[in-house]
What we know:
Elements (H helix, E strand, L loop, with lengths): L27 E3 L7 H15 L2 E5 L5 H15 L3 H4 L11 E3 L3 E2 L2 E2 L3 E6 L4 E4 L9 E4 L10 H26 L17 E7 L11 E4 L5 E6 L5 E4 L6 E3 L7 E5 L1 H6 L9 E3 L7 E8 L6 E2 L17 E2 H12 L20
Parallel strand pairs: 1-2
Antiparallel strand pairs: 2-14, 3-6, 4-5, 6-9, 7-8, 9-16, 10-15, 11-14, 11-16, 12-13, 12-15, 17-18
Helix pairs in contact: 1-4, 2-4
Amino acid sequence: MGGIDQVFVQEPEQRPKPSTIEVDGIPVIDMSVSGTGGIEKLASEIGNACRKWGFFQVINHGVPLELRQRVEKVAKAFFDLPIEEKRKAKRDDLNFTGYHDEEHTKNVRDWKEVFDMLIEDPTFLPASPDPDDEEIRTYSNKWPENPPEFRETCQEYCREVEKLAFKLLELISLSLGLPANRLSDFFKHQTGMLRLNYYPPCPSPELALGVGRHRDGGALTVLAQDDVGGLQIRRQSDGEWIPIKPIPNAYIINIADALQVWSNDLYVSAEHRVVVNSEQERFSIPFFFFPSHYVKVKPLEELVNEQNPAMYKEYSWGKYYINRTGSNYKKLEAENLQIDHFKTPESE
Ligand code: OGA
Ligand code: NI
């Protein structure tokens, strides 16, 4: 069908429509702050974007452009290597970091290749999703031999984007009317990762997706995309898929599931997907910011009262994460674990 393997073909209702409507995109927020009340104003712009879209772009974010360009360069050099070379750093059953080209989203294979690395090396995570199993496993990064500057460049980039992620976390706390550091302790042993995404040109872009529709499972995602475009988000008001316009050197920020839960549904973890095209390859670099494995995620008590009952029961971040990473790479009979599984009766 259309010259591509059936495993990549989306159900008809999930396939991208040929023409996407022209719309005003998600908010673009300038993070440079000046004058009195600057921080409050910035926090309030972020709060509005988190309520309405769950997505926004930031400029003047403090991550050096020169560093971002170096990471883009090593990413391209890595994905340009012969497949046998890339597979030397392949993900395996014991270590989920490294190269991978068989990810499935909602049980259809994504038209992409990825390289995953942990931000903290080592990272501590539960050994299994079983709630009674208390064993903790230690994970370390797998690195490719080539290009030689790959490891150092990626590590340097992770440190810079991490600073931005912590800054955003503070602004989001302020925007919820809470102290700036209210969420910071949840990230003392953060379990996040940086992913390099490579979307090769696809001969049948009307049938496949680079990443199928999904919500990010962590707290926050800080994404660099190149100038090709392809990321779309599902608008809350009418379910329409809205393209996110590339802005040079900007970052796309999205609220992920744990922040939706902490905010007790004030902020949304929005569904998004990636469309591919037949001419150009595309690169993107998401930084997934995840809490420590032992954090119990539940609506913040300051945001819960008689009028606003807790919408979720508490869940363990580590168990949730391990459950989901196990399922992302295989075809499953059922949908993988989502925060909806923890909805309380009051939220119905
Ligand atoms: C993801 C994702 C978007 C993109 O990797 O979770 O949504 O533009 N990526 O690559
Ligand atoms: Ni995503």
